[in-house]
Amino acid sequence: MSRADVVSDMGEVAEFLRHHCGLEPGDRAILAYPSGLDFVRCLIGCLAAGVVPVPIYPPDPINPQKTVDRMQRVVASSGAKAVLTSRRYANARRLGTARSIVTGSTVGWPGDLPWHITSRGIGGRRMRGPGTPGAPGRGWSPSLDAPALLQYTSGSTSDPKGVVITNGNLAHQVDFNRRLLGPGLDARGVFWLPPYHDFGLISVILSGLAGSGEVTLMSPLTFLQRPALWFDVMDRVRATHTAAPNFAYELAVRKTTAEQRAAWDLSSLQVVMSAAEPVREDTTSRFLDAVSGTGLRRDAFCPAYGLAQHTVAVTMFGRSTLSVDRHQLETQRLAVPADGPGSQVLIGCGQVADDVDVRIVDPELHVPLADGQVGEIWVDSPSKAAGYWGLPDKSRDTFGARLAGSDDSRSYLRTGDLGLLHDGELYVCGRLKDLLILAGRNIHPQDIEESLRDCHPAIRPGGIAAFAVDAGDAGEVEGLAVLVEVKADIATEMLSGVADEVQAVVLKNHQLRCSAVVVAPPGSVSKTTSGKVQRARCRTRLLDGTLEAEALLVARLEDAGPPDVPDDELGTAGPVVTSAGAWPAAPGDPLLASVRDQVAAVFGIRAARVDIDQPLSEQGLDSVGFVKLASRLSQAFDRDVPPVDVFNHLTVRGLAHILRDAEVAGCEHHPPQALLQHPNPARCGPAGDGDDASTRDSFEALLKGAITTGRISEGMHLLRSASQLRLAVQSESGARTWPTAVPTTFTSGPKAPHLIFLCTSVFSSGVYNYAKIASEFRGVRAVSAIPLPGFARGEPLPDSPEAAVECLARIVVELVGDEPFVLAGQSSGGKFAYALGKRFEDVRNRNLAGVDLLDSHKESDLELTELLTREILYDVYE
Asked: What predicted TM-score, i.e. pTM, was given to this entire model?
């Protein structure tokens, strides 16, 4: 289309819509077109006539049953008065209708709407209708606030939401693209993006029409069938601009050959944009390395961020990367710079422009966060859409958000995306609604999906979805489910191997266990019409049974049992090697094999997948898992195995070692013997030294000396040793008394309040793990830690959660007297801190200054329940 064609077609279509179709300015019309110039002609004609276009992905005209329902919903939501389409699609629809009559199937096409064909006729004849061809609609003057088009977001299926894009929004966005991307007279763009959504509709078609260069359009189906053609065309026309989602660059690497890439000259490209889905550092690196011989400059690669609710773009031309500590990002939502193992690289999506206001906000408190903190991305600019069509309440919540405690009258768009700002650059981390909170960690499903992409040759790239499911005996905790599509020709006997590989890779790379792995045929992963994975839809289909009905295999955590071969055969045939790593037990060592069986049962994987020398925490065992493993070992070997033994002997080999010995193993350095005699190990002196807690070689003096002089690891070792010795202490009568626990005081200081940590019995919240935190307060304030009652062997177990709380209350009162104090805790220790704080509140204890929870909890998760008591305490002993 030349510019003269654009003007002529715009006027002709506008007159046709007004006089032949009877549409007035402000009326909505459905645009049901395949990709192509017919769609472009109709779009610009609608804008010229003041008719509000509603682009949709056209239902399959031959088999419309699966997709026409969405069209019906969009029609009902938008109040459209007509459907506009092409001659080719209309003919295909008629054939489909005839086919349905023959087969007896019913198709629910919108029956009360007229369909109008806007295509040019065969042989160049133009559409016919009253009016003067070539004259735009006269007597209509568009305003900046008037709706220009309705953009139904690709994820809105059962509850469609049409984003109202105004003329002012379009004007700002087109100017935004002009300023940042610089398409001049010699600009040549090549694009295959679907025209029904913001990226292809506005960033490509409308911005291209408003520019002065040349645009070449391809069908998305053509690209998917022949990815190399995209690059062939760019080479042929000497393209300067192109754009695509992240998956397209991944596909380009996998579906093009080195010989094809060697023939391309991409040196003319100035902008290669990656947007519409998270931009991944590994994909970016693989793509740029693959095309390094084509002349493409690395600085032409342009990460960007945008969404339909902001017309399209928010930021563009990301130039920075940020390597951060993955653990801090997941547990604290904080970007702490780090390199090497345990780090994650974030891709910058561009600096924030002067006329765009981007804030990172706590999604619950609505307060702005500092640089480097992860929160919800809020945006305000002239490109912010007017709201959702016909949904005032939803529009107010999404487009009218205000910062708490601020007098600023500005309202923001809540994007639902998580991100952070660093040195003015925006980094996008994932979707708030997709975020998985597992074991107190914030996990982005995209990270899990990416790690599984190449884990097994039978898994289809792009056919992976990770999402949350209810887990536990009563669905009381959140678990992880993974859905993978496999190639159609996979042998049945390979399916269990795929599930095993998924379990092992997730454990190895993310230290998480899968509650369910679903192996399914191609097409099973729910996606939007723009190709985005619909994780919530996958979850719904798994819960209602429809996904399981079509699956080839569903492997659940509770299905895991002992290995398929006898213990005495484990390891005798040599190592079992897989891409995720597998570790045989030592030949002739049935105890080691038996311990590995118990670990595998807790993990829910085959025993051959368990590394006997890698710490179990690195293989995915969390705090509750340590407790369950201790319980299983106690039952299997008919001896008391406290969770602290499991934690202190972190490997399968270490656990087998302590089970062989009659004594508790691992205490190479013993504190003074008085530790076994004094009721308070943290405040005793050496044997025969009286009650002077300040004696030079007392345990407390040794501990405080280590912490004060910065020897943190030595202080932690002292506490570990004390814990292990204390485990062997039994009361003389052997009878249980009122439950108790022994506090440890790390530091003292003049400032209030006294900080008291309530510990879990296992993993990273034991008493000794708070030594490093306490060292930050040395000489400033008192810091203590209290283990849970029933933690050590010989200590009586509380009969209920309430009894444990009463015990802790007595200990705290004895410890602090009348001093103000703060309670803190992590994991189950946080739950007890919360319950204890409520107990002090009930009795109106004025010394309680606050309760700090060190990881993420929903308020409903903080109540102490019988289930918690059983998981954390009772299972260890019964």
From this structure: 0.61
